[in-house]
Amino acid sequence: MIVVIALLMCLAVICDGKFHRHRVPNITPNQMHQITLDPVEKVKLTWMVDWPEKNVFFQVKNGINDKFSWFAVGFSRRGDFARTDFCIFQKEENDRIDTNIDAWSSKDGREIIIDRQQDCISIARTNKDEIAFRRKFDTCDEEDFNFHEGTMFIYWMRGEEPLDFVDESIPMPDLSEENFGMSHVQLLRADSISIPEK
Q1: Residues 6+ positions from 173 with CB-CB distance below 8 Å
Q2: DSSP SS3 for 63
Q3: Which of 187, 189, 179 is nearest to 85 (CA)?
Q4: Which residue ranges does the record assign to the DOMON domain (predicted)?
């Protein structure tokens, strides 16, 4: 947890190939939230809500490793896979996670379509195997799913073979059950606070 906090407190945002500083609020442990996506591979999703700036900061641990070359986190309105809003990350030849794609699944769930407006903003990482990114609550993009304070559904998937993003869409990869999953969370949950006793 301390490592995650330290990481998020010194973030630099990568945009158009350049590093940009991004204001991150002071973080305390009770503002960090975490779920385990895959207990076997120990894949964990950690997030922090920046209420003043209306951003959510995410970190995925163990999503990409020597076996898997890409990992995707998706946000769904009602738990349906169709029209799920994805942030896809891929390891390149230098073994760094350099590809970051904002995309969404087609209405029939058979294709992944690259969004014209890229709103999954990568964050500089000290560990090359960690994924870190941020996204606005509302990106003003009709293809994106607006984050809200109710229950949301998080899809995740990963694969061994690299994805080819040459075209505007790619066929939905054929994934085994252990490389695909869904969890429901309250993403914009209120941070816990402590009230001193009188």
Answers
A1: 157, 159, 161, 163
A2: coil
A3: 187
A4: 41-159
* Greatest CA separation for the chain: 63
In the numeric block, the tokens 């305390």 are attached to 28
Residue 112 carries which side chain, given as an amino acid letter? I
The topology under which CATH files domain 2-185 is Immunoglobulin-like (2.60.40)
In 3D, which of 152, 160, 149, 141 has the Cα closest to residue 182? 152
Q: Are the C-beta atoms of residues 157 and 48 closer than 8 Å to each other?
A: no
Sequence spans of domains, the chain: 2-185
pLDDT tens for the 198 residues of the chain, in order = 444 433 444 344 333 333 333 444 444 556 789 999 999 989 999 999 999 999 999 999 999 988 999 999 999 988 999 999 999 999 887 777 878 999 999 999 999 999 999 999 998 776 767 899 999 999 999 888 899 888 999 999 999 999 998 889 999 999 999 999 999 999 997 664 444 454
Please tell me the distance from the alpha carbon of residue 78 to that of residue 10, in angstroms, as a whole number: 34
**Residue 64 C-beta-side C-alpha neighbours within 13 Å:** 25
Burial 2-23 (b: 16+ CB within 10 A, else e): eebbebbeebebbeeeeeeebe
Identify the three-state secondary structure at position 179.
helix
Write down the pTM of the prediction. 0.81
Decide: 16 and 8 in contact? Cβ < 8 Å.
no
Residue 32 tokens, joined: 């960090």
